């Protein structure tokens, strides 16, 4: 991975422009497809998930509601392309380059044990195919001048033996999709496609997929690289949580801001946030909060950007909305009594029913600031 760091600036530029300026990356992306999912899934190019959902629900694809749903999904893709998609593309290209760099090191040092045997088996390479892949890399890896006049290193995949190339492409794709997790088609139980499961497990499929791709895989491999990756994920997750927390309390009055900083940015809470946001933790925070909630204890992992506790897999935006409506109604009813009054928390709970997206949250905070904290 360290060998890819000198290209960090190039990757950041590519993530912003969407154009790969390195010829070698264009070659790799063509073969391995890492970083192109949001492009291959835009518009009408991929309807498999929609068709499968319609078949499972027994619904028609020609009704007005279906057309509205299709338009909303298109809008979601547009929003994704302006927010998370470029970041995911950057991460996938970096992971792909790191994986290929690892294979090149192994090909240059075939007498040493550079590659983990367990990891190679997980990504689909047996001992014989692994040896054939390294031999092809050693034979065809070369430096050429690209169209931009710069010298680049290529794998020469077009010269490889077809079966070996196919196995290598699959291995790199699998490795990349594990490092930067993507759920695979058919990975989930069939019941997850039902309307009830969609309602119950909203936005939880990624966490469920992480249980096998991250948690169980790391326990099976139990290598130092997995531990280092987990620690790095915790570090970056903690940093992201600290930034999000500061952004989410902008506009609050001084008392609320001070209380929020004490509650959400103490060392224990930051550590919990880092653990929750690490991919390998997957279902553990949700199961813990679900279990402790049953015996009357407060949740430990209430560090999500929505400020909702995990409460297990059943926690979803629908239940969160119901909870917010209940809390807001209770606050408004209490304020109606002769000795009652609205607090800043009541105002925020009432207004966040309309949404909790960036920008709107700060407006809600500013609106609630004139009201007393208690």
Class of secondary structure makeup:
mainly alpha
The succession of helices and strands, N to C, reads: HHHHHHHHEEHHHHHHHHHH
Count of β-strands: 2
Beginning-to-end CA distance, first to last residue = 51 Å
Number of helices: 18
What's the structural domain tally? 2
How large is the share of residues in beta strands?
A: under 5%
Percent helix among the residues? 55-70%
Q: What do you see in this structure?
A:
- The chain contains 18 helices and 2 strands.
- It folds into 2 domains: about 180 residues, no CATH class; about 150 residues, no CATH class.
- It is mainly alpha-helical and about 375 residues long.
- A hairpin with a 5-residue loop joins strand 1 and strand 2.
- It comes from Methylobacterium komagatae.
- This is Phage protein.
SSE arrangement:
Elements: H1 8-17, H2 23-32, H3 37-40, H4 48-57, H5 64-82, H6 84-108, H7 117-122, H8 127-140, E1 142-145, E2 151-154, H9 162-179, H10 195-200, H11 205-221, H12 224-248, H13 254-264, H14 267-277, H15 284-294, H16 317-335, H17 344-351, H18 360-368
Antiparallel strand pairs: 1-2
Helix pairs in contact: 1-6, 6-8, 6-9, 8-9, 12-14, 16-17, 17-18
Protein name: Phage protein
Essential attributes:
single chain, 374 residues, mainly alpha, two-stranded antiparallel ribbon, 18 helices, 2 strands, 2% strand
Summarize the structure.
The protein is mainly α and 374 residues long. 62% of the residues lie in helices and 2% in strands.
């Amino acid at each position: 991975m360290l060998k890819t760091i000198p290209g960090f600036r190039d990757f950041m530029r590519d993530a912003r422009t969407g154009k790969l300026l390195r010829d070698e990356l264009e070659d790799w992306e063509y073969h391995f497809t890492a970083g192109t999912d949001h492009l291959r899934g835009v518009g009408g190019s991929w309807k498999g998930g929609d068709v499968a959902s319609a078949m499972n629900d027994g619904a028609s694809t020609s009704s007005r509601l279906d057309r509205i749903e299709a338009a909303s999904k298109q809008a979601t893709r547009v929003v994704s392309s302006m927010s998370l998609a470029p970041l995911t593309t950057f991460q996938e290209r970096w992971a792909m380059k790191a994986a290929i760099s690892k294979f090149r090191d192994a090909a240059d040092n075939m007498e040493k044990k550079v590659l983990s045997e367990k990891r190679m088996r997980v990504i689909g390479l047996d001992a014989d195919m692994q040896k054939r892949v390294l031999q092809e890399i050693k034979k065809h890896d070369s430096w050429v001048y690209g169209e931009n006049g710069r010298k680049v290193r290529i794998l020469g995949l077009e010269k490889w033996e077809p079966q070996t190339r196919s196995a290598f492409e699959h291995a790199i794709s699998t490795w990349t999709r594990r490092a930067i997790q993507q759920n695979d088609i058919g990975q989930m139980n069939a019941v997850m496609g039902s309307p009830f499961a969609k309602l119950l497990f909203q936005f939880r499929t990624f966490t469920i997929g992480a249980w096998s791709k991250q948690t169980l895989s790391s326990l099976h491999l139990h290598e130092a690289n997995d531990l280092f990756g987990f620690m790095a994920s915790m570090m970056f997750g903690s940093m992201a949580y600290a930034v999000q927390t500061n952004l989410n309390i902008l506009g609050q009055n001084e008392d609320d801001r001070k209380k929020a900083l004490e509650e959400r940015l103490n060392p224990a809470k930051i550590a919990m946030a880092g653990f929750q946001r690490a991919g390998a933790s997957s279902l553990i925070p949700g199961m813990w909060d679900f279990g402790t909630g049953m015996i009357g204890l407060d949740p430990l992992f209430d560090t999500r950007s929505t400020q909702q506790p995990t409460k297990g897999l059943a926690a979803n935006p629908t239940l969160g909305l119901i909870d917010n409506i209940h809390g807001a109604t209770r606050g408004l009813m209490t304020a109606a009594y002769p000795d009652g009054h609205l607090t800043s928390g009541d105002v925020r709970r009432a207004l966040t029913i309309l949404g909790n997206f960036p920008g709107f949250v700060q407006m809600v905070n500013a609106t609630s600031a004139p009201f007393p904290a208690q």
